[in-house]
Give the backbone structure.
Amino acid sequence: MWRVTLSLIPVIMYSAYHFGVKVLVPIVFAMASAMALEVVCLAARRKKIAIVFDGSAALTGLLLAFNVPPEIDLWILFIGVAVAVCIAKHLFGGIGYNLFNPAFIGRAFLLAAWPAEMTHWTLNGVSTATPLGILKEHGYSAVVEAFGSKTAMYWHMFIGDIPGCIGETSALLIIVAGGLLFYWKIINWQTPAAYLMSILLLSWMFGGNSGFMSGDPLFYALSGGLCLAVFVMANDMVTSPLTLKGKFVFGLGCGVLTFIIRKYSAYPEGVSYAVLLMNACTPLIDKYIVNRRYGTQKA
């Protein structure tokens, strides 16, 4: 778990540069709160306190901080951390037993409880809207117009010069983190590839407003928290399927659901809900998609 956190340090550093050093406060606060609540839960369950040093609690806090706006109130963030650690993780039995990604459960709860605070974006002290928010309210042409051109739009979204949650703006650095995780053999290629393939195809075919195959798949790939989900959060070893085939199906489902929520719901972003819905399907995937054992016959 600590290596996953290590891979995300460049993202943390860029967030501090992009939003200001003050953004480190919610990041450190969330990580410290998650570790403190982990100790409390372990003590209440009479488990070894040393488990807190495995890095899972710190990573949960970091990922939740990555999924909130830079100006989030710390008391709201603390409640989200408590939901993630105490309910989504320990209520299910602790690490290795939780059905849902704890950080996304925390984010989903905060979105339901404080929607205004969770969708208030500032950049350089000015209130603004995310590319997905502009798309939902005013259409694709308004997004391009806001950046001046498609090339400028792609570039700003790729490097992360856009408003958004703390850790989801720089697609470039998140891809680098994903590359490190793949190199360290922490993640497999199946889930990221299937996730990207499905949403790129669907957004190209059905994402545009000018008919079939008029969508912009690159915009869909670079916007919102997609890259963070594709390369980090959807690859959680506890809440994703066991087999490689299962991981591929899991990724496909995440991509399909993300597109449906983004395109047809009232909410501009659908990554967290898509991954959580597929987390719920993981036991079913593991039941029906299993590796064949050669040399045996069906009973």
In short: The chain has two domains: 2-118, 124-286. The CA atoms of residues 146 and 153 lie 8 Å apart. The longest helix spans residues 24-44.
